[in-house]
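Handout, page 2. Input:
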Amino acid sequence: MTASLPRVVLVTRRTPLEALLERFGTRGQAEFYLRTRGQDLGWAQGVHDRLQAALATVQQSIPSWQRRVRIDREDLDRFLFAPDDIVAIVGQDGLVPNVAKYLRGQLVIGINPDPGQYDGVLCRHRPQFFAPLLVYANLGAQRRPDAPWTVEERSLALVRREDGQQLRALNEVYVGHASHQSARYRIASGSQRERHSSSGVIAATGTGATGWARSIAAQRSLAAPLPQPAEPRLAWFVREPFPSVATGIAVNFGYVEPDAPLRLESEMDEGGVIFADGIESDRLEFLAGQRCEIGLAPERLRLLV
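Output:
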């Protein structure tokens, strides 16, 4: 029985204190830098201490005979998840999308180490509840239907380039220029086609509809409904399309359905990129002649709630 228990993968990210110490080398140097700017390390130390306390509680909740490994967000693109891993994400909600793009159906448990600091939309559970949550997760197919938890499935976006390279996103996909220059491309949605010069294209899931997409929709006073987290649909937006003799602005908003992807073809000689969930370091080039298709991923985020 114990040998068959899945591995627990603990995912965290550097705290502000760890980032400051890495930047300045010593605590004294970091304190001096902040003090000269009217700040101190108190807030960073508090965030760090609460995360460490939560992480200790979670680690102590894992049976000594159950395999576990801890990784940092910066190592996700080099880490190999096993199909039956249980992924425990300890941190702010934004860490869940960072992890989700690398998963293929593994069960995720989000732990909120600091409810006074983080909303807990995706990382909903307090550290002290991890022990019973892990017991429930370990049961796999034998989970009782009357248990107080359930597995919530959320849609993911998938962007695939013409050469087979692809990225997944829990929140949104961005296609555009890496800098503030205009992105130039051709866009096709159903029978609609247009050549664009814009600030790029965003395609958001129902999870991402509460973030960047919501801001764009509000700014443009769009009355059209945005997708729900479990809904198999994406909403896409063209940011600031520019009208000219060569470019249009009519094709600027729509939906991606399971059988209706969004297609783009780059006309950018340099700087064209595709990235997911704000992680610009893990990106695909999108240069002149390259094409991409944005649709729904076959996998879904499986979140224990």
